[in-house]
Write a structure and sequence with these properties.
The chain is α/β, with parallel strands linked by helices. The protein has a domain of 183 residues: Rossmann fold (3-Layer(aba) Sandwich). Helices cover 30% and strands 22% of the residues. It contains eight helices and ten strands. The strands form two sheets. Strands 1, 2, 3, 4, 5 and 6 form a six-stranded mixed β-sheet that branches. Strands 7-8-9-10 form a four-stranded antiparallel β-sheet, with no helix packed on it. Strand 7 and strand 8 form a beta hairpin. The N and C termini lie far apart (54 Å). The chain binds flavin mononucleotide. Flavin mononucleotide binds next to helix 1, strand 3 and strand 5. It comes from Syntrophobacter fumaroxidans (strain DSM 10017 / MPOB). Pfam families: FMN_red. This is Multimeric flavodoxin WrbA-like. Keywords: Flavoprotein, FMN.
């Protein structure tokens, strides 16, 4: 890495000096090269919901909303590597991460700059075993921001600072720091079934012994072999973010929706109109 490397710490916690923040800082401290640490606390940023207008896929390829999304995206574009850390909130990552990701069709305008930045992800849960899908959510954050996921972990700690009280927090921070500086894919944990395509370890079990990776959507089979569950997955017909080319193809496919909509506009309108006026909307009183 050059002397001007920037590590962006993406914090999914509103809590100042909380576990997510100190873990990112510890990862930074464990880096051996010359790095600058920048920090971004997503929950405190004004990132509004995507309006599903698809404007960001056309023309300038920029989201038309004027809020902090652009500041966050610029920080991501400028960094050399990033670490995303979120607490578990109700078995999932903090919604601040999702609010940013939901604006992610705007990432397609920056594929060249975003693709393949070294990135690591960590989920922090207050109760052992109660992380739910938080690890998958932080891994998904890296995937959809087109980073090269070099490592991920789940750590436990409820009180601010607790995550670094034991040795495991610091050793995992060291492992993630080394992964940022060492090219190559994440080393898989021995004995844990992993997706053959992307290496993730979160699955949905389907009928007939098939299994789907919840990070990259590859499907395949799973079986017990010598007392261990093994998984063999293959990329499907609609590979999602496996390669830079697949990202560009997906953007093209999305742009094609406009023509597909225009072609079927009449029949779609007939379906939708049938439901117009059904139900009473609850709306906030903004007076
Ligand atoms: C609203 C809320 C929901 C939470 N939900 C969970 C949960 O589902 N599972 C869990 O293990 N911990 C849960 N926690 C605990 C936090 O994940 C834990 O305290 C974590 O260390 C917070 O990280 P921070 O210090 O970076 O904010 C929750 C905390 C809050 C405030």
């Amino acid at each position: 890495m050059s002397s001007s490397s920037i590590l962006l710490g993406i914090i999914g916690s509103p809590r100042k000096h909380g576990n997510s923040e100190i873990l990112v800082k510890e990862i930074y401290r464990q880096l051996s090269g010359d790095w600058e640490l920048r920090l971004m606390r997503l929950p405190e940023m004004d990132i509004r919901p995507c309006r599903a207008c698809y404007q960001c896929l056309f023309g300038e390829m920029k989201c038309i909303q004027d809020d902090d999304f652009h500041i966050a995206l610029d920080a991501l574009l400028e960094c050399s590597a990033y670490a995303v850390v979120s607490p578990a909130y109700l078995l999932d990552a903090n919604a601040g991460l999702k609010r940013f990701l939901d604006r992610g069709l705007a990432f397609y305008g920056h594929v060249a700059a975003l693709w393949g930045k070294p990135a690591v992800a960590a989920a922090i849960a207050g109760i052992e075993g109660m992380e739910g899908r938080t690890k998958l959510a932080v891994e998904g954050f890296v995937k959809f921001t087109m980073g090269d996921l070099r490592g991920s972990t789940v750590l436990y700690g409820a009180l601010p600072g607790e995550v670094l009280l034991g040795e495991r927090g610091r050793s995992e921070a060291r492992r993630l720091a080394q992964a940022i500086e060492k090219p190559g894919k994440e080393e898989r944990v021995a004995g844990v079934p992993a997706c053959s395509v992307c290496g993730a370890d979160s699955f949905r079990f389907l009928p007939d012994g098939r299994v789907r990776c919840l990070l990259c959507s590859s499907t395949g089979s799973c079986e017990w072999r010598e007392g261990r569950l093994t998984v063999a997955t293959q990329p499907g017909d609609h590979p999602f973010f496996h390669t830079r080319e697949s990202v560009l193809e997906h953007a093209e496919w999305l742009r094609g929706m406009k023509d597909r909509f225009l072609q079927r506009r009449k029949e779609l309108k007939a379906v939708v109109q049938d439901y117009a006026g059904v139900g009473t909307w609850i709306k906030p009183d903004r007076k």
